[in-house]
Design brief:
- The N and C termini lie far apart (48 Å).
- It is globular, with a radius of gyration of 21 Å.
- 8% of the residues lie in helices and 50% in strands.
- The longest helix has 9 residues.
- The strands form three sheets. Strands 1, 2, 3, 4, 5, 6, 7, 8, 9 and 10 form a ten-stranded antiparallel beta sheet that branches. Strands 11, 12, 13, 14 and 15 form a five-stranded antiparallel beta sheet that branches.
Length: 271
């Protein structure tokens, strides 16, 4: 039997105050199985700050979380919409989905939506080490979302005066669609501020290309691009980004790529 008590908690100052634990502990060895149900008020939109929402804990694949498709119906619950968040199956990595907060023992964890609301929400949560377990502190107000894929940490947090700068990255790929998104976030106490957001999306007509190649017809060249961003490690808080562009010709022998150069740009995070 896994350690930890399932609890129910409103996201209020009582539950969200610094250092205020609400009684749920989970063994570090089981953390990848964490499932958190988040339920808003009837008028809540998860894209807003989810003040007044409720959270319930368990383990993915067990009990009420055994079949997520049956658990959550976005339109059926009169108490308000709800989603279940946790970690992508078989892709949990401590450095990608958790990061220690500077100057302390507590950790932040990114919880990705496991259900299907159509917006792929993600939430930041705070945890306190307790022996070989982690104890829930709070779910931070606000959320992040991308059309497809998952959101994780990009590098280590950086201290900025009395605040902490975090960089989240969203990566998604499906049927020729490739997406990269980066969210620069400032955390100060219980206040979470989204400072900057930058994204890049490309669509390659995979079905059309395959159809032409299967008919022994040449495919047209397509353009692809990719974005990568990182927090500046020293100096004025900033986000350094590089966008690469590539021309691709798909042939029977495989894709032929031609680099088209890189664009470097910097976004100020000091404001």
């Amino acid at each position: 039997m896994k350690a930890g008590n399932v609890v129910f908690c409103l996201i209020t100052p009582l539950c969200m105050g610094t250092g205020q634990a609400v009684g749920f502990r989970i063994a570090k060895s089981d953390f990848h199985l964490l499932a958190v149900e988040v339920q808003c008020a009837p008028t809540c939109d998860f894209s807003d700050e989810v003040a007044g929402a409720a959270v319930d804990f368990g383990y993915a694949g067990e009990g009420k979380f055994a079949d997520l498709s049956k658990l959550v119906d976005q339109n059926a619950d009169p108490r308000g919409p709800r989603i279940v968040a946790g970690f992508p199956e078989e892709r949990f990595d401590w450095s990608r989905f958790t990061q220690p907060l500077p100057g302390g023992r507590n950790r932040m964890a990114v919880l990705n939506e496991l259900t299907s609301s159509g917006k792929n929400y993600a939430f930041l949560s705070a945890w306190k080490p307790f022996r070989d377990s982690l104890e829930f502190i709070r779910l931070l107000p606000g959320s992040f979302s991308i059309p497809l894929g998952e959101i994780s940490f990009r590098g280590a947090p950086r201290s900025q005066g009395g605040a902490t700068l975090l960089l989240l990255q969203g990566i998604g790929s499906d049927a020729g669609i490739n997406l990269q998104a980066f969210f620069a976030v400032r955390l100060q106490g219980d206040r979470l501020q989204k400072v900057r957001e930058v994204s890049n999306k490309t669509e390659i007509p995979v079905a059309d290309i395959l159809a032409r190649l299967n008919d022994d017809k040449p495919a047209e060249e397509v353009l692809d691009s990719a974005l990568q961003c990182d927090l500046a490690k020293t100096g004025t808080p900033a986000l350094h980004c590089v966008k690469t562009r590539t021309k691709i010709l798909y042939t029977q022998q495989g894709p032929q790529e031609t680099p088209l150069g890189k664009e470097n740009f910097t976004l100020d995070l000091a404001r």
